[in-house]
Amino acid sequence: MSDQEIKNRTQETAKKLFGGGVKMDPPYFLWKAFDKDLAKDFSKFITGNLYSRTVLTLSERQMVACAILAALGAKAELRLHVNAALNVGCEPRKLAEVFFQVATYAGMPAVNEALGVYRDVLRERGEWPIE
Fold first, then answer.
1. Contact 118, 91 (CB under 8 A)
2. Which end of the chain is less crowded, N or C, counting CB atoms within 10 A of the terminal residue's CB?
3. Is the peptide bond before 26 cis (omega within 30 degrees of 0)?
4. Which domain holds residue 118?
5. One-character DSSP codes across 74-86
6. Is 82 domain-assigned?
7. CA pair distance 102, 26, nearest whole angstrom
8. What is the pLDDT averaged over residues 14-40?
């Protein structure tokens, strides 16, 4: 695949994930502030190569990302990916269920933190409460 094709896939995928909902800067802007070339490489790999694969849908990839971030307690990154998950069609009830599943492996404090982040994102998007 040519560099231009990867660049196009990166931009298309990033727009789907981060183009709507809560206004927040993706990590790319932070990376870019430190190293512009490395930021481009990270972005092309993560968004252009990994997230654009079709084995899992973007919605499924976001549910996986949200579960892992919840288990890690990475609230800022979780906020970004909860919003992205909703942008690519994750069903709100399924995403909540993903967070409850985290209890088995990371404990209830992780669930509570994740649900709090999720609720805040839904409120900012005008989608709270979920039905």
1. no
2. C
3. no
4. 3-125
5. -HHHHHHHHHHHH
6. yes
7. 24
8. 95
Q: What is the chain's length?
A: 131
Question: Which residue in 21, 28, 103, 94 sits closest to 70, CA to CA?
Answer: 103
Report which of 92, 93, 120 is spatially closest to residue 22, judged by C-alpha positions: 120
The position carrying tokens 């490395």 is 38
Number of domains the chain is built from = 1
Q: Which residue do the tokens 């690519």 mark? A: 88
Whole-number pLDDT of residue 1: 84
DSSP letters spanning 42-75: HHIIIIIIITT-SSS-HHHHHHHHHHHHHHHT-H
Q: Looking at the domain assignment, is residue 27 inside a domain?
A: yes
- First-to-last alpha carbon distance for the chain, in angstroms, is 43
DSSP annotation of 104 reads: H
Q: Which two tokens stand for residue 125?
A: 């998007």
- What pLDDT does residue 131 have? 82
Handedness of CA 125, 119, 113, 50 (dihedral sign): negative
- Say if 69 falls within a structural domain: yes
- The CATH number of whichever domain residue 51 belongs to comes to 1.20.1290.10
**Residue 70 structure tokens:** 């919840």
